[in-house]
Amino acid sequence: MKAADETEEDYDYKKEQMLKDKKDNLSLQNVSESLLKNAAAHEQSKELYFTLNIYKDHNLRIYKPLFLIKLALFFWFAGAIVIQAFFTVFLKQRGLTVAQVSLAIGASVVVQLLATSLSAIIADKIGRTKPVLFAHLFLTSAVCVAFVLIPPLKTADDIPQFELFGSVNQSIHKLTFESWCNKSASTTESTCKLYYATNISRIFNEAHCFTVSYIKEKITTIDRYTNEFENLTVCHYESVQEVGSDYLPTLCKGDYCELLVQECMSETGKCFYWDFRTTLLFSFYVLLITIHFFSHSCVFRFYDVTVMSLTAEHNGDFGKQRVFANIGSLVGPSLAGYVMQATTYGYDRNYSLAFVFYCVFTLLSALACWKLKVPQRKPGKSMWRKVIAFLKNPDYLAFIVVLLVLGTSFNFMVVYSNWFLEDLGASQLLLGLVMPLSSAFSIVSLFASKWFLQMFGAHKIFIIALVGYGYYNVAFSFLVEPWYSILIGIVPYTLSYNLNWVAVVEFSHDLAPEGLYASVIVMAGLIHYVFCRMTASLIGGMLMDAYGGRVAFRVMGGINLTTAILYGCFCYCRRSFKK
Fold first, then answer.
1. Strand 210-221 relative to strand 260-264: parallel, antiparallel, unpaired?
2. Distance, CA of 511 to CA of 520 (rounded, Å)
3. 3-state secondary structure at position 225
4. Alpha carbon distance 199, 405 (integer Å)
5. CA-to-CA distance for 106 and 486, rounded, in angstroms?
6. Secondary structure, 3-state, 174-212
7. CA-based nearest residue to 489, from 561, 559, 563, 430
8. Stronger pLDDT, 169 or 56, i.e. the higher one
9. Where do transmembrane segments lie in this chain (predicted)?
């Protein structure tokens, strides 16, 4: 209120000052509240994130609720890729032939499709994926322990010696061939080293011998011997019908001939002695192979479901979780290969260590996953009715067709790329570098996967993936210098595989009706990795055999590019129809 002796100007000035003080107080209060909020957010950030200082002011923040799933994926992929790399050579070492391994793996495909689908239905029915995931982690570990403990198929009861004689200018030299084999065996195979000496005189001098190539010795019966050379050499010996021959007639001409000496390694001999025990062991191997592939595949599929559930719950990024899976797939095989190389003495490698690595990494993955708080969903109801309605969805049917082409292209690339490169004369170093380098480059696309999905959407990512595979196959078909395959392989691994798989899982999760989340994601994985492995082997094998590698890659490239055009037209029509 205005005082009696106060002028109008004084009153206005005081009023203005009061309003200003009030504004200052409000501003100070707002600043205080803002500081408190920032402090609270900072404290909350400390609680929710691990912060790692990389360089100066550049930090790496890891979201704590998703840290354990990153560890679980790292350990699982480290062990899983180890077992994939050494599984077939381990079975070969245990006495199984290529035909037997192929038969067992082929038979396991049907079991994988049926049993994995049943596991997904159970997970949806109970509304929980974690118990199903742990069951398969335990099962696959138990099977690998059984693989290590089960005895090999081949027997080594006796070590018969086969005495052979080499002749150079009628000078007789005695050679001895040793092979691990049971007396009742029908066939024996052993790998031998081939030695020769240059400028040799009539008297053999061992000091001048050195390794030049490898040959294979085959014994058709216990007392008959056949000498079969894999490589052309200076001197060739004719077949010897009996071990007791005086000498091996040489085909060399001239006064002097370079002497061939065969030094056979008994550790690599294979004896196929079929009786009831061997038949029982082989049946047990087939059973273990079937269970291994089923449980091994299930762990991959249910990790996808678990990671997708967690990222959806915490508004995370599925691709960034897969980064740690890629890192694990690079670290695991390298570490296992180094340890196996360092602990190998003699000629026979101990591939059982791969299974030990697998069990250890699987245990670590299970321990990391144990503490995870995986969100539970409502148990599935009226599941068959939802499945029938879901299969009538044209978007899902088109997605299945695209997934079949993408999966076949991926498996064709994995199976036949190195085969084609080897025909071009690629070195072992190059064959070992293509996949790891491509996987390393794909880490960048996984980090940016969320941005790609928000920018383009899943449908456009599928089209990009199809075009990427098309480019890869067509470019591969014109390849002359094998080393360029590294540059060609970056695109399919970064865009067509890793980024595409993130889009597949997220699209499956978004498209799935309530109560069928696990089933839809698992079915996508089964189609891409299991069913399409069979179609790629069948179609690719027929094309490679009939027309050669270049035509096969061009046909696959044409299929991808055609599918990309057709799917693009479908998406355009669907969008126009919805408008």
1. unpaired
2. 8
3. strand
4. 60
5. 31
6. EEEEECCCCCCCCCEEEEEEEEECCCCCCCCCHHHCEEE
7. 430
8. 56
9. 66-91, 103-123, 132-150, 282-303, 323-341, 353-374, 395-417, 429-449, 461-480, 486-504, 516-539, 551-573
Q: What are phi and psi of 257, to 5 degrees?
A: -140, 140
Q: Which residues have a Cβ under 8 Å from the Cβ of 67 and sit 6 or more positions away?
A: 50
Cβ–Cβ < 8 Å for 141, 359: yes
3-state secondary structure 417-434: HHHHHHHCCCCHHHHHHH
Per-residue tokens: 199: 């400028």
Q: Report d(CA 77, CA 327) in Å as an integer.
A: 8
Provide the 3-class DSSP secondary structure of residue 224.
Answer: strand
Phi, psi of 478 (to 5 degrees): -100, 5
Token code pair at residue 540: 């690719």
Helix 318-342 and helix 276-313: axis angle, to 10°? 150
Cα–Cα distance, 83 to 567 (Å, whole number) = 36
Report helix, strand or coil for 271: strand
Separation CA 47–CA 298 (nearest Å): 34
Q: Which long-range contacts (CB under 8 A, 24 or more apart) does 560-564 make?
A: 560/405, 560/409, 560/466, 560/467, 560/469, 560/470, 560/473, 561/466, 561/467, 561/470, 561/474, 563/401, 563/402, 563/405, 563/466, 564/463, 564/466, 564/467, 564/470
Residue 51 three-state SS:
strand
Determine the average pLDDT of the residues in 334-356: 75
Which is more confidently placed, 380 or 69? Answer: 69
Q: Which of 22-36, 68-82, 379-393 has the highest mean pLDDT?
A: 68-82
List, for residues 363-384, the tens digit of each pLDDT value.
999 998 888 888 878 777 777 8
Residues 295-313, mean pLDDT to the nearest whole number: 90
Residues 489 and 440 sit within 8 Å (Cβ to Cβ): no
Return the pLDDT at 9.
59
Where does residue 98 rank: exposed (0-12), middle (13-18), buried (19+ CB within 10 A)? exposed
Pairwise CA distance, residues 458 & 435, whole Å? 25
Q: Name which residue leads in pLDDT, 301 or 424.
A: 301
- Contact by Cβ (8 Å): 424, 480: yes
Using alpha carbons, select from 210, 228, 224 the residue that is nearest to residue 164: 224
Please give the structure tokens belonging to residue 74. 């790292």
Cβ neighbours of residue 370 under 8 Å, at least 6 residues apart?
134
Distance CA 230, CA 224 (A): 19
For residue 162, give both structure tokens. Answer: 């086969």
The whole-angstrom separation of Cα 429 and Cα 423 is: 15
Which residue do the tokens 């070590």 mark? 159
pTM for the structure as a whole: 0.70
SS3 call for 284: helix
Taking residues 202-220, what's their average pLDDT? 30
Q: Reply yes or no on whether the pLDDT at 257 is more than 50.
A: no
Q: What is the DSSP string of 472-495?
A: HHHHHHT--SGGGHHHHHHHIIII
For residue 237, the SS3 value is strand
